[in-house]
Specification:
The structure holds two protein chains of two kinds.
Chain A lengths: L3 E5 L5 H14 L7 E5 L5 E4 L19 E3 L7 E3 L2 E9 L10 H16 L5 E2 L22 E3 L2 E10 L3 E9 L12 H5 L5 H16 L3 E3 L4 H15 L2 H4 L3
Parallel strand pairs in A: 1-2, 1-11, 3-4
Antiparallel strand pairs in A: 2-6, 3-5, 6-10, 7-8, 8-9, 9-10
Helix pairs in contact in A: 1-5, 2-4
Chain B lengths: L6 E2 L4 E8 L2 E8 L1 H7 L2 E5 L6 E2 L4 E7 L2 E6 L3 E7 L8 H5 L8 E7 L9 H11 L1
Antiparallel strand pairs in B: 1-2, 2-3, 3-9, 4-6, 5-8, 6-7, 8-9
The chains are: A alpha/beta, B alpha+beta.
């Protein structure tokens, strides 16, 4: 695999963040190499898993006032506050291969190695099973490969697979949020302060080692942002998408 | 259903073509190999009756282990029937991908797309190569 593209992005609105990932996914058919993007959200936001019902958010009172966007990836809802989001876009040849699940494990092992380097002990969840009646929040669910610290889930990922590329979203909980008070982040659990820049630098190294790819920083360019703006207008910023179910 | 009588897309959908009232009706589902690869299906979305399908274009989606994957139509035509019971009984796909696990029936508008599909032997070879 060629060396990948690393994007350390600025904080943006939810629909923009989702539109940029979709743009990168659509453009990935023109590239043989993966893209890894780290980003924050410019205001606390809920992202809903693709198949979740919009009404399901009524069950989670602490985040009810937050803006909401529906992701293209599966899994449960995320409260994007005091967390770091990543997206990984990788060219594939057959969307149904169950080996694609290995990307969950690869990235998550990289994160575990990173946390270990920072003196924080974490492990992968095992022996779980997906269900339709899972809790609303991703971090209250358990799936094989989730990253746990002292039994608390701090990293979960989900995918959208197309014919020629795969998008993997993941969220790393940094600190407890008032909008998701039942959850704890790595800083709460480790009782250590970690600089975000240090964390991203180490995560790149950890993920690079586990998926065997080197990353070169290449920020988004204007034509990509314009394409993403159009995707936001037609899809992620549109109520027909948000209220899809 | 005899697997040898079906046609298959390289994207793992199967097709049974039958004559019905002077029209050709294609029943479409996904292969047992696909179901096994997906594992733990939790959601499915299928089109409404009346939707136009186009060969190689998405007609639905499934979610398994937090991964959303599109379902690609192997044929051109109009959806005339949808297996609505699948949504609440996805285990049917594990037990019976070819009979109870059918997804949509399509009245073909053009049979040209059928020539691009694989027969059972060719599809089995593709699955063996991918395993």
């Amino acid at each position: 695999m060629e060396s990948g593209r690393l994007i350390e992005d600025v904080p943006r609105q939810g629909a923009d963040n989702m539109a940029i990932d979709e743009m990168l996914l659509r453009r990935s058919s023109m590239s043989a190499s993966p893209t890894l993007r780290f980003y924050f959200w410019d205001r606390p936001t809920v992202s809903l898993g693709y198949f979740q019902s919009l009404n399901a958010r009524e069950d989670h009172a602490p985040s009810l006032t937050l803006p909401l966007v529906r992701r293209a990836t599966g899994g449960g809802a995320i409260v994007h506050h005091q967390e770091l989001t990543y997206s990984l876009i990788i060219p594939i040849t057959d969307r149904l291969k169950n080996q694609h699940r290995d990307y969950y494990f690869a990235v998550h092992r990289g994160v575990i190695a990173t946390l270990a380097k920072l003196g924080i002990e974490a492990e992968l969840a095992e022996g779980t099973q997906a269900r339709q009646d899972d809790p609303f929040l991703c971090f209250e669910r358990r799936a094989d490969g989730d990253v746990l610290i002292q039994g608390h889930k701090v990293l979960g990922s989900a995918q959208r697979r197309h014919a020629s590329a795969l998008l993997q979203h993941g969220s790393l909980l940094l600190q407890k949020s008032i909008f998701a008070p039942s959850l704890r982040g790595i800083q709460d659990l480790s009782r250590s302060a970690i600089e975000t820049e240090t964390l991203i630098f180490e995560l790149c190294n950890g993920i690079q080692a586990s998926i065997k790819n080197a990353w070169n920083s290449k920020p988004l360019v204007q034509t990509e942002l314009e394409e993403a703006t159009e995707i936001r207008r037609l899809k992620f910023g549109h109520e027909a998408w948000t209220g899809k179910r | 259903m005899k697997l040898e009588e079906l046609l298959y897309a390289d994207t793992h959908e199967w097709v049974l073509v039958e004559d019905q009232d002077a029209a050709k009706i294609a029943t479409v589902g996904i292969s047992k190999f696909a179901v096994e690869q997906l594992t733990d299906l939790v959601y499915i979305e299928l089109p409404s009756v009346g939707t136009e399908t186009q060969s190689g274009k998405e007609f639905g989606e499934v979610e398994s282990v937090k991964a959303v994957s599109p379902l690609y139509s192997p044929v051109d035509g109009e959806v005339v029937e949808v297996n609505e019971s699948l949504k609440d009984a996805l285990e049917t796909l594990n037990d019976d991908a070819y009979d109870g696990g059918w997804m949509i029936k399509v009245r073909l508008s053009d049979e040209a797309s059928l020539s691009k599909l694989l027969d059972h032997a060719a599809y089995e070879k593709q699955c063996a190569d991918e395993s």
